[in-house]
Amino acid sequence: MTETVSGGSAKAQSKAKGKGMKIERVFSTKGVHPYDEINWERRDVVQTNWKTGDTVFEQRGVEYPDFWSVNASTIVTTKYFRGAVGTDTREWSLKQLIDRVVKTYTAAGREHGYFASTADAELFEHELTWLLVHQYFSFNSPVWFNVGTPSPQQVSACFILSVDDSMDSILNWYKEEGFIFKGGSGAGLNLSRIRSSKELLSSGGTASGPVSFMRGADASAGTIKSGGATRRAAKMVVLDVDHPDIEEFVETKMREEDKIRALRDAGFDMDLGGKDITSVQYQNANNSVRVTDEFMRAVEDGTEFGLKARGTGEVIETVDARGLFRKISEAAWACADPGLQYDDTINDWHTNPETGRITASNPCSEYMSLDNSSCNLASLNLLKFLRDDDTFDGELFAKAVEFIITAMDISICFADFPTEPIGETTRNYRQLGIGYANLGALLMAMGLGYDSDGGRSMAASITSLMTGTSYRRSAELAGIVGPYNGYARNADAHKRVMRKHQAANDTVRTLHTEDLAVHKLATAEWAKVLEIGEKNGFRNAQASVLAPTGTIGFMMDCDTTGIEPDFSLVKFKKLVGGGSMQIVNQTIPRALKKLGYQPEQIEAIVAYIAENGHVIDAPGLRQEHYEIFDCAMGARALKPMGHVRMMAAAQPFLSGAVSKTVNLPEEATVEEIEDVYLQGWKLGIKALAVYRDNCKVGQPLSSGKGENKGADSNAAAAADVVEKVVEKVVYAPTRKRLPKSRVSRTTSFTVGGAEGYMTSGAHNDGELGEVFLKLGKQGSTLAGVMDAFSIAVSIGLQYGVPLETYVSKFTNLRFEPAGMTDDPDVRMSQSIMDYIFRRLALDYMSFEDRSALGIYSAEERQRQLETGSYELVEETGNAAELVVEATEAPAAREASVSESAVKTDTQGAHTTAELLEKISGTAIDSPLCFTCGTKMRPAGSCYVCEGCGSTSGCS
């Protein structure tokens, strides 16, 4: 960065009031350096783009602990090691990376009076090193990029800017944003101070309005992106709901999405990163409308709402509140923008209202604070604090929070900032953003459903403990190195917010012994917060947020990011030495054991999940336990309000907000989005964004079963080879009648004790043409209904309806009778219809077609267990090429999972998202990674690549 503000002057602000902290040993071992307790090994990190085959990165002989996964070591080596590759200055060991950061923090802590003695500083260094090398937490990416290097010591990933109603301020906005983007970070700001296009300038002309200035900023962000990093510049643009240009703002991206579709249909390359997408505006920002309680009540009441002039504050236009709210929801339905930020809720939890209001957020919406400020983040790996008996170790968790918050505050003493105003505000208010990852995996391992009262109670208790401990340590630090400079002015407001957190903690209703134990610890911490804070004040204006934890989540080998649920029940895993395998989440066997299932039951359930990717009808799994294994994607995807309710459970215990997008299915309606936005306000969430599957065109999605209808890549491909015709083509289906004499088969079956018969007849080419079912007594209602159903299906088949369509519609249909069958190929069935069409698929569909639907014979399932492939492969002299394997010892070490949970044949998948697509037969609506070409997966309000750690905008 060319413009930096040194943090050296912060020394005077950290003048010690006490004698420094005494550090307690918790994690490390006395007399042993944390590195000496670990087995280290050398690895080769070679990264390729699987589409082009080009080598993207190569560094051999890097050093990592043997328990770090290939993904973690690859991402850290490629993203965080400093120095030119191939030179002696290049870092080659994780020890060098951690030492570079930790020793810088410890030195700054000594310099600024944080430690009581040199021995305490050394112990702090060992404790922090132990936590990092064992993947208990991670700082945000800028720390790993910059700390301990000759580069500016920027530690913050989140920035909020400001802009006023003047050309100087607007042009300065462009400049400041550019510097932040160049440094690989993102920024947000509120444009509501800029006069609307319905107001006059002092010269007598009409103002341009904020939307017009958004064009210039968008072009700047796009240019910096294309000239530098492999990800887009991340930015947030906010406009108040009472701004006269609000409707134009709401419709900007929706109108551009219509333009994208028109240009795509005309043959232009409109994929994200395509050569023609740059002609479309407003694509480099997330847009949010800042709504007030007044507006939301007007929506509920169906009354008018006033839009106000920026200069005078007078109402210059009134609109129907419900109509405007409908337009916001329609735009979000069409293109996922705008999101909502709930202004009164945000500012009701503001610790510094005497300094100024909170008007905006960072690009991912988790950091909300004063204009011209920044926040450095760190996240804990929750699964590390799960004991062997599957209870959460709240005491150990709180100890880790103490160390991390202390380190984060120290970083502000030496940090550099992109602009002088940001540096000044951050040093004066010292905003921190501690958070966590792996919540979804933790809840599953504990046998708690993500969308359940028990799951929400556990999440609320953990979040309350984290923030309570953070503010308690902040108050203790204030007694040693002083409160933040802006505290005296805002003391009453800050203490009021602490009481609000405590009151929210008192309302948590615990449901089991695990959350009760954590909640008791949180209650004790909030009592200390008020007691110590009353005496010392607080060192930090803010303490906690829940960030996306994209890249650092992979660094910690987390199964889930931020507050997110598990992505899917099956995972794609790379092996040391090369190769890969498909595994079932290892939290699943742990959860099943917790729920009381026996080893043989667990093995059968895990094998079923490995084959089907879901738990529906898994042998022996009780239906009341299904919810524990619900995921973001798949056959039992969580409902939208499940995501909203989890956000609401954590929100009262956060200084900032939750970075999360509420995903809705493609068939979701505008009314459903309206309800999500309305419920978010009522539940006290600070910010909310939605994404409806396939709503956006400009995303490169991989081809496969279930194409993205928004990207319409099949249609685009077809356009290259099919000439456009002007005349109208009328399609008239013709019936392909069966020959008078045809081959048929009769199958007797039993489903859940109910007996029946099925007769199927085929054309001469073997294609199914008719089905007759016999159930119940002749002349009964059931027999009549089955006759009518058989005729309808048979006529459909003869008129060209593919059997695959019937199979996909009628399998997994659930009603009684259901249960065990007498068919060895279909052992369990959810209904008679489910059985019939599975049997027809096995009898008449090709292996490729039915495998796409997850339907296999008993022989094929057995073959998969023995060889790793369902498909019959003829043996050749090159049998070793049938499966991709790593070197023996590392593979054996990383594959220490149930054999039934592993498939070494990943069938061309390169990430978990692609693996889930192949198992489920449906497309995952995520973009492709620019670096390695694989499909990314959602992480908070953006996307992260499982292969190389690249993100779509968040660190």
Automatic annotation (TrEMBL):
Its cofactor is adenosylcob(III)alamin. SUPFAM superfamilies: PFL-like glycyl radical enzymes (SSF51998). Residues 44-135 form the Ribonucleotide reductase class II vitamin B12-dependent N-terminal domain. Keywords: Cobalamin, Cobalt, Disulfide bond, DNA synthesis, Nucleotide-binding, Oxidoreductase. Residues 156-691 form the Ribonucleotide reductase large subunit C-terminal domain. It holds the Pfam family TSCPD. The keyword Oxidoreductase applies. Its EC number is 1.17.4.1. GO terms for molecular function: cobalamin binding; cobalt ion binding; nucleotide binding; ribonucleoside-diphosphate reductase activity, thioredoxin disulfide as acceptor. Residues 739-843 form the TSCPD domain. GO terms for biological process: DNA biosynthetic process. Catalyzes the reduction of ribonucleotides to deoxyribonucleotides. May function to provide a pool of deoxyribonucleotide precursors for DNA repair during oxygen limitation and/or for immediate growth after restoration of oxygen. Belongs to the ribonucleoside diphosphate reductase class-2 family. This is Vitamin B12-dependent ribonucleotide reductase.
